[in-house]
Amino acid sequence: MKIREFEVERWMNDYEETCRYNLAETCVRSLTAGELLDLSGRRDEVLAELAATPLTYGPIPGSPRLRGLVAGLYATQGPDNVLITHGAIGANALVHTTLVEPGDHVVAVVPTYQQHYSIPESYGARVDQLPLREEHGWLPDLDALDRLVTADTKLIAVNNPNNPTGALIDEAGLKRIAEIARRAGAWVLCDEVYRGVDQTGDGFTASIADLYERGISTGSMSKPYSLAGLRLGWIVGPAGLLADVSTHRDYTTVSVGRVDDLLACVALENKDAILARAHRITRTNLAILDEWLGGRHDIGYVRPSSGTTALLRYRAPIGSYEFCTRLLERTGVIFTPGAAFGIEHTVRIGFADDTETLRTGLDLVGQFLDSLGGS
């Protein structure tokens, strides 16, 4: 099997550990283990649970406790509809491996996480991409999707909230996608790893798993829950599909780590506190970004409705890899080149890490833009 280089991950691997100001981070500012214990209000009890945890294999699908807690993030799902995986990246890969065969037709809404088109392509699928348009607020043209989906379409891959734009398909839009898929008998894989940090309300929009009988949701503890280091995610969908996924999973991973499972349980049992923190950070920081952009004429964006990232379009006449490389060398600030998502003259910013890092980084980006002949 040959597969394209994962452009976003390669960029991050090369530079995120050496930058001074990380404005490419996509997780809400990470919690320490101590902060998680403090948020739980049960430090001694959790440490006692941890001390008593045998470091052997755990339940292969994930502990019943954890699967029940994940199911609670959805409106109509139960523990039998949940399979715990090694991150959302593992969840997405397993779904594609299970469903996609050579010659299958897949429709991927782009820009998105590269897994959703490169993996099906590598398996020999015919992949049609539906590009999001900036002038449409980075939301999919569902009439165009309807035209792309045919009787032999196997899978529609969507990312909601969207990475890198932060655009959010509402419940009505998701229901329309379900109707389009139902006509073809296609599955819908919705990568919902950023679900939970909408800019309004309780932070949650509807999930495709609750709206469509062939809807599959993937998620993780990484983004809104600030626990990427657990490397723990999930697939939520029909029990029959999860049985097929489990067959493939047996060839790649056994259980997730029992410590990871336990700490994920602690986090989800205290999700209200963790998500309240995430909402404070994402809403405060996006307001800072919005104000900064409002004072400039050489860079702008479609304001995100959710998630932790935004796609910024700049006016400087250089490509995004050159822009990001020069920015990093001169200022120590890292963005992600928009070309890694197939959208040139843009950069992806992650705005949900440390607030002071964001402020300092934006000041330095402003100076860099001024040096290029900006406002």
What keywords describe this structure?
four-stranded antiparallel beta sheet; 375 residues; 15% strand; 13 strands; single chain
Helix tally equals 14
What is the makeup of the main sheet?
A: 7 strands, mixed
Q: How many distinct beta strands?
A: 13
Strands in their spatial order, largest beta sheet: 2-8-7-6-5-3-4
Radius of gyration: 20 Å
The ordered H/E elements are: HEHHHEHEHEHEHEHEEHHHEEHEEEH
Class by SSE composition:
alpha/beta
Mean model confidence by pLDDT: 96
The portion of residues forming beta strands comes to 15-25%
Report how far apart the termini are: 48 Å
User: Which regions are unreliable across 5 or more consecutive residues at pLDDT < 50?
Assistant: none
User: What coarse outline follows from CA principal-axis ratios?
Assistant: globular
Helix content: 40-55%
What is this structure's SSE topology?
Layout: H1 7-15, E1 21-22, H2 33-40, H3 43-51, H4 64-71, E2 82-85, H5 87-99, E3 105-110, H6 115-122, E4 126-131, H7 142-148, E5 153-159, H8 171-184, E6 187-191, H9 208-211, E7 215-220, E8 233-236, H10 239-249, H11 258-269, H12 271-294, E9 299-301, E10 309-314, H13 320-331, E11 333-334, E12 336-337, E13 346-350, H14 355-371
